């Protein structure tokens, strides 16, 4: 008798019970103001993940042996309904968190990040956020939409308050956003300078890690909605992630891959490798 | 002194005052359930329209001489907020209609059609709709969203009631939609059979014409969100449009071109030519 | 607790026990002489199948209600080793056939067809083959490789002997192949003329149906390794398949979609719709 | 000892001395007003020609046995210098014609056609032209450039005078061009109606055959600079060419394939097959 | 009443009278020897410019507040007629210069640069040129065409004489060009070494700045006609431009983006960001 | 009389007799496990090589004057038959080697490298291999296929034994491969550290140089079957090659370009430039 066709990110084939991490896809891009398509990211990442190895020569660890990940597939989200979609993501996160596991969301657009941050902030009132991105994402609203992907870090600030968000790699935004940031969050322009000090301060605290892949230079990752020149290299990002290994990470997301603008497939290959490094870095 | 850079669909450069038709773009695709990208249609159609001629050898008429069209550019719509976007489209339509001109909307996704139908039905209580499409678009809702592009003809029926909608070319939908249609609208499967009789019945009445470009076979128009094999040819569509010339058309839309899936540019060229034929057919 | 991520062709989610058909993917293209890439077909077909409806307005039947199909996922085939791959496909077919179910292989390149034909000919010594294709596929070998996709119908003839193969739509091949065909198989050039008579003759006999999607015109299905102008339309193919409904079909394959040459996605959408029509046509 | 790498259109590998036809590429597109790229046609056609068969099942003839063609490679043309490029093409044609062979030019943009027509009209003062195209190409000039591809048939008329040009399939142009044509050339709109009568009239006379591939519908041949909906099918074109077999063809060109807009490769495959049919039709 | 559709580069919407800079597009690529398509650059740059921010975090300046730019749209240039096109560009430049404004040309191919240099050298006899490029562009002619894009810097030298041209980033050319350069211009291979000294020398003099975007590495900007590996990074280019801020810039061009080879859109995004930085750097 | 159409890599047009190097193409990719397409590399490299210059400003040498290369065109290899294809490549290499010339193979997939290594090891029993690659390629077999491209360096080790292979740039592979490598070959992870010492050791010995182009970062060379982030830059690779100039190179290959994933053409341009640098570096 033949078996059902189970599809996962490579080597993320543990059972739900034994899993430390629960990875799932959030195919949603309705508020994307420039070029949509991040809805295709999680599906493409799964199938292309079989082009990378499970072993990391950087960390000398292997997804098969050193990580326990359950891949729950994709949520079926309601296009065009931001508010209800955020509720759907909250429900998903709540299940995983209440089972004592770490949620790993594969976006989809960045706006979704406020949902797991909301859920986790209820469990961990002292939650902090590490944020790697090209864009500030600090608009109060975008054309009147408060749930736009251009407003997501502002929404996280609504939840967490001043001083809890630590942004790195930021190189694009409105003038007002950069000036507002100076008083309300920690914002490092262009690169990862100061990351070690931040890690030192956050040790022991619960931390959510949100990665907008467009922090990478578009030469490394052209497949994203709003390519923004002047970004970090793959090795800089990989090294920055490895520095987070001593933190108490309680939730993760990897957002904004847009595969239809990735004609060579190399952006997706980068995303897969970064996800592997993240899972191996934070596995215990 | 140099002039400002005015950009229009080819030869649609009349003043607002002298115009019979007002064309505008509605770049919105947030409820699109499969592949987004119709937001790029109106901009691409304008720039590529300079690849076609203003003269139609089919009709022996020329956009320069035989049509008075003002191109108002694109609306700036709020991604991810269907309900508010429909309000924006209603406002635009209301201005044009109150000035005694005929609105011509270039989509964008099909969900927007309910907005001008709503506005026009207030001015013309006996409004009828001619609908060319591959899909029924008759779902009550799609994953709970009543304003989805898969529900737009159902929303028009909410406004107009039984017997006022005349669909042609339909070749895809849920079983329930096809069965529901039998009792509430006129639905011609696969082709334009019966169009002449319909036109005969509708003479003198105010008619809205909504064209979902995916009524064309994907070999003719691959650049659309949900390509659906078994469609009509360019000549069949062109000929069907010409049959509508005796109707009292009070509003028009041309929807669902998705240029990023049109790598050869031929889908956009088809859309431009169809828009030219529509404008020349209905110009007085 | 969350469920595993099961992935199937749309609505092919029955259990193995209750299934009448077992569908699986055969991602192999190592002998392809011109442009490879059919290895990507089965995976792409599954994910894109959610863009079509489960209901066929042509047949008034629905995959959810009227077909019992189990999707077994993809075989993991050994690239570069034709002979061993054919063994792998034979094993898969043998399991399904011995369980009294009908195998439905999604290629991959056409060379694989000889494997299920071999297995089924042992169970059904009077097996006949209906073959829709653009190409003769009757070379004794291709550069010395007898298992090339250009030789597959010749290999089927080795198994079945004269008069058992019925080819339609053929419009490309070497001169020798066309002349050889006249004495050994039934070959209809360019179209489906004579299909009804063939069906009449084959009634009651066990029949294998092999569909090389390049029988379609490249305007309908550009996404294939060797596009061959002058092919049949979607409606001609759909109608030809419906004519086979009275046959005793014991095995099926649908081969040679090459998604990386299908930039608009319309070839894959055609393939999905054809597979739906095939499953609904042959379901009892 | 290894041989040099000779590259030809498939089976066009005869010596110059024994050849009846001399085929060459003219990679030039500097006057193209919309989308350039036909410069890539001849190179791409040669390499992709190995994807078709040498045998035509339509004509039961084979390029290996039934045609004697020498492929002279590509001319190196001076981009941006229309007048000098036309001189280069005239020189090439003159060599071939003076050696009693038939020139077969693979474009490149259509503007080049006036060069071989000029050369051949000197040898054959009663030269007639058969012209298949989507566009009239009858502008006196395009933005002041008399050698534009939009003016090429007007330039041929300058050479040949009234009544010598026979255009078919025309479906795009300025109003003035269509009206001018009525008095000076034979112009059949949209299709090949009347071709048989034309062939009857031209029997015995020297005829130049110029084929702008955009006469085909863009669904068949999207890879061209100015796709123009409403064109002929592959079978209609193939059949029209076969009707020309009784004419005394003294020169041929096949123009306006633009491979970079042909992402699936099917446009190039169509062009290759049409060239095969042309060579086999006119071979003696 | 609705307004006309004015289209500009983002925030370049000042009136002609108040503008300090006049930006316009020069869609011409007829002499391009390898891959054409720069004709599409200016149109694409305008529409994609809405994907970047008006604010530069590098310069802490904003296009809305800190720059006065009028966008005059595109010139309609005569394809295939280099000499006449250069006259058209000269006329455009002369208008702007005589109105005391700074011309900013968006190419188009590099050959056009000699036109504004010619016009400006008449007003400023001591004009110097800063030239960033991958290629020497110093051929006397290319296949006999003196106005080719491969000869443009040689043409500028014809106008300006020895020692007035300062090239940086050069990594490709004929041997003779590199040797000739040693005696007639300042040419820095591969990078921007020595730029500060050059700026020091040129202070107070009128300077034309011509930027061939292929000075960037193809990983940063693949969308160009002749990608040339080994180029500078985005940050290196941005920093080099900022060093020019103290110069008396009297004319600017940004050339050779070819959007049809930029499938991810990231090359265009880079070009937009560079144009923003240039406008903000040189605004007073 | 016109000449035959000889096609070579730019300036590789010497006669076989006078040549020091013999370059040929090996279009084979049947064992490629992820994305095929390297079969298209050699043909594309030849035609695109005319976009680069023959002169290297890095080496101040020119292909026309400083290198004697004969281009023998492509082998016609048997798809799907690894073992026989390796025999074909061995035969080709043997001819060239026996004529005292240096073979330069343009792949095609990396599996072919074992063929020239086998031939050369018979002539030079003390042969060493310099190997630049992203991947270990040290699997004993891949799904049972010992001749897979994932096993090629293991096959070379079968021939040469311990300590003769020197791998650089390796950043992907199975854990077992990395551990096995420690005892049997020299493997430098990620970069070219230690290359100078290796060169010092190998001076005077016969050395085969095999370059898998995916050693480059995918931002530089996206057009390859398995893009692997974190690679070397163009300048790092170019500099590493220049360091090899003092070695006694007896054979060369350049493998794994996959042009159909190189939509901008920049990967092919990189490959051409690297081949030029290699030929100029090793020419005497």
TrEMBL record, chains A, B, C, D, E, F:
Mn(2+) binds at residues 110, 133, 135, 137, 212, 214. Pfam families: Arginase (PF00491). Keywords: Hydrolase, Manganese, Metal-binding. Its EC number is 3.5.3.11. GO terms for molecular function: agmatinase activity; metal ion binding. Binds 2 manganese ions per subunit. Gene3D superfamilies: Ureohydrolase domain. InterPro entries: Agmatinase-rel, Ureohydrolase, Ureohydrolase_dom_sf, Ureohydrolase_Mn_BS. Its cofactor is Mn(2+). Belongs to the arginase family. Agmatinase subfamily. This is Agmatinase. It comes from Lactococcus hircilactis.
């Amino acid at each position: 008798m033949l078996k059902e066709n189970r599809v996962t990110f490579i080597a993320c084939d543990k059972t739900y019970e034994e899993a430390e991490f629960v990875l799932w896809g959030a195919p949603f891009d309705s508020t994307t103001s420039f070029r949509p398509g991040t809805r295709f990211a999680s599906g493409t990442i799964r199938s292309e993940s079989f082009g990378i190895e499970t072993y990391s020569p950087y960390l000398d660890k292997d997804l098969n042996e050193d990580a326990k990940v359950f891949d729950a597939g994709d949520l079926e989200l309601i296009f065009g309904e931001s508010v209800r979609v955020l509720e759907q993501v909250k429900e998903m996160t709540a299940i995983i968190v209440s089972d004592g596991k770490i949620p790993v969301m594969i976006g989809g657009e960045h706006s979704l990040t406020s949902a797991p941050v909301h859920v986790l902030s209820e469990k961990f009132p002292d939650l902090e956020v590490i944020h790697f991105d090209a864009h500030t994402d600090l608009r109060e609203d975008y054309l009147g939409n408060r749930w736009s992907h251009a407003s997501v870090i502002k929404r996280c600030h609504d939840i967490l308050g001043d001083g809890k968000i630590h942004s790195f790699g930021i190189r694009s935004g409105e003038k007002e956003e950069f000036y507002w940031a100076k008083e309300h969050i920690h914002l490092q322009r262009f690169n990862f300078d100061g990351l070690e000090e931040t890690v030192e301060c956050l040790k022991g605290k619960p931390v959510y890690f949100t990665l907008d892949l467009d922090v990478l230079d578009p030469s490394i990752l052209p497949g994203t909605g709003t390519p923004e020149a002047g970004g970090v290299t793959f090795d800089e990002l990989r090294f920055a992630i490895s520095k987070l290994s001593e933190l108490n990470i309680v939730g993760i997301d990897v957002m904004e891959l847009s595969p239809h603008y990735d004609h060579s497939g190399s952006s997706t290959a980068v995303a897969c490798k970064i996800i592997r490094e993240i899972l191996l870095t934070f596995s215990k």
